[in-house]
Amino acid sequence: xxxxxxxxxILLAWSVPVVLALPLSVLSLRGDNPxxxxxxxxxxxxxxxxxxxxxxxxxxxxxxxxxERPLRARNVLVHLAxxxxxxxxxxxSTAAASLALFESQDRFGDLFAWWLFLLMPAGIIVYSAxxxxxxxxxxxxxxxxxxxxxxxxxxxxADAKLMSLRAQIQPHFLFNALNAVVALIRDGHNQxxxxxxITLSELLRDALHSSTVQEVTLADDVAxxxxxxxxxxxxxGDTLQIAIDVPxxxxxxxxxxxxxxxxxxxxVRHGIRPHAGQGTVLVRARIIGDEVEIVIDDDGAGLxxxxxxxxxxxxxxxxTRARLRQVYGDGASLRLLPRPGGMGxxxxxxxxxxxxxxxx
Length: 360
Fold this sequence. Notes:
single chain; alpha+beta; 11 helices; disordered C terminus
């Protein structure tokens, strides 16, 4: 429901017809024994300011018995009775003021009947205007409420879709991390396996801690991805090297949670593992205009001839693209391309940068 009308506003509104009636009052005072101007002003006020007391009940009736299609006989009868009541009250107020202010010799009943007959045609217009104005406010409030509910529903659906996409990543990440621990145990590296379990428990704690939020800081997401790379390095040894180049000024930039982990996982799985010899995964970020660019490079095996088909069917890239599209629409991009200047692969992310979210 729209807010209730304030009495001060109502009094001010009904002062308008009083002011508009002043020229007619001045003209009517011409004669041999004209009454004082203030008496005419008070008489006009008695006619119209009485509506300040009638407006709120009429507005309530408009809310309680709305005049809308299909018309209900009860509602129409209620408003017809209320209209007649307002005319009676207005005529009685005007007749009483006339007797008190102009010392008329007419009887109250005669004055009341005359004013009732005079005010009824205008009364239907005034009454209908008050009802129509309140109904218009109610309709506008209902439209605004429906729009707000629609936006809230759209936001809830978007959050649900994001949660679903994120839920796809978490078990996939967990299974791969457990496979790394199993590989260490099978190879007889018990101490490294124990360290890997500790690292995995920290990863799970961080994942559970951030599961209720859609966005995290870039620093937190880089730390999570780095811890995952450390887990992989326990399995691969010196074959895997890790390099992080994220300026402190970008630490507070907000990004979707678990954004980097599936990308660095792909770099290790498809780049470093198949490659003979040592390999490096580099994560770096920088500001370009009003965007932040995040690049993940590996100097591993490079893109396979059928990499476009394989990446289209892979969970990591497809899921990340879907999440970026859900959060940023067309404002974000993800590109997979050969690493410039040598062997390997590059994943280049572009996200909108909100500068007020960047730490000074």
